[in-house]
Design a protein that fits this description.
single chain; alpha+beta; about 55% helix; three-stranded mixed sheet; about 20% strand; 3 strands
Length: about 80
């Protein structure tokens, strides 16, 4: 996983995308976006990758579980 600032990403977007790794874009040291290559992966693998992003953003376990439940309802219904 690559961490980069908005400014650096703007200048090197093609280079970062060519590496086919997830890119976390930061502003003032805080994650603001994640860009992931399109790949076939299991849900578990995607969630494990997301773990690092959530950790860096300071998201608590409780907040993450609440958000995951909201998304589950939106995607799959009640």
């Amino acid at each position: 996983m690559i961490f980069t600032s908005v400014r650096e990403f703007k200048g090197k977007a093609t280079e970062f995308l060519a590496k086919r790794e997830p890119v976390v874009i930061t502003r003032y040291g805080k994650p603001i976006a994640v860009l992931s290559p399109v790949e076939e992966k299991s849900a578990a693998a995607l969630l494990l990758e997301l773990r690092e992003v959530l950790k860096e953003a300071g998201v608590t376990r409780k907040e993450a579980l609440r958000a995951l439940e909201e998304v589950r309802k939106e995607v799959y219904g009640s």
